[in-house]
Amino acid sequence: MPRPSPPPLTCLPLGEQPQRRLPQLFIGLALYGFSLSLMVRASLGVNPWSVLYEGLEHRTSLSFGTISAVLGALVLLLWIPLKQPPTFGTVANIVVLAYSSDLGLSLLPQHLGLPARAGLLVGGVLLNGLSVAVYVGARFGPGPRDGLMTGASTATGRSLRLIRTVVELTVLALGWLLGGTVGVGTVLYALAVGPLTQFFLPWFAYRSGAGRAAGAAAPEGGSGRGASARSAPHGRLRSRILKACSDGPPA
């Protein structure tokens, strides 16, 4: 069975097919939060923002999920001077990730052997790539951290790649200084999550009526825009996701 063509990622109104899109959004965010808890319990390194959450967890009495929610809300405040409007998906990202990551950490055992931890790490990275495709594919808008990068890129005129690199390296360094776990998992996440998300996204992206009609009209051979998107380097995927709502809903 051939893979579907790469989907559009622009943000859609909340009222469009909510019975179809809302469950996908919440399932994707819940899986994303659980994937973070898998990587934390692996203790082999996590993604940059989770390194910061871990570091703050060591320094405060707050839980991992609570810290992610607090930082998500603080990051959201930075959207105001950047004139980046939040969406329903932005708020859902903060709330669902906090509860699902804390639930996962409460269910998963600690101090496992290396083989089990390696399995948790690989499973966490795979689930993370899948979950990003699921919740981004619902097209409710970016989370607070991605929206910060989108807004900063628009406000400064710098590329999304540069803004993302600066932000995530800063977050990673700060989290490491606070005692967060940096290791092979951090590298594996950085290398694998983009290709994984790109692989899964065509199956999970919701298509509006206009989008389905355009897809049906595309040549089966995959020529044109769809083919060029498939052959683009996977690093462009992150830029597409970050820019998903920067131009507003489609006309």
Structure description:
This protein is an all-alpha fold and 251 residues long. It is 70% helix and 0% strand. The protein is built from 11 helices and no strands. The protein has helices at residues 18-42, 48-59, 64-82, 88-107, 114-137, 144-156, 160-177, 184-204, 209-217, 225-231, 235-242. The radius of gyration is 18 Å and the shape is globular. The two termini are 32 Å apart. The model is unreliable at 216-234 and 246-251 (pLDDT under 50).
Strand runs, count = 0
Enumerate the spans where pLDDT stays under 50 for 5 or more consecutive residues: 216-234, 246-251
- How would a crystallographer describe the biggest sheet? none
Mean pLDDT over the residues: 85
Structural class: mainly alpha
Distance between the termini: 32 Å
What's the helix-strand series? Answer: HHHHHHHHHHH
CA radius of gyration: 18 Å
Question: Which percent range describes the beta-strand content?
Answer: under 5%
**In percent, how helical is the residue content?**
over 70%
Number of helices: 11
Tell me, what's the shape?
globular
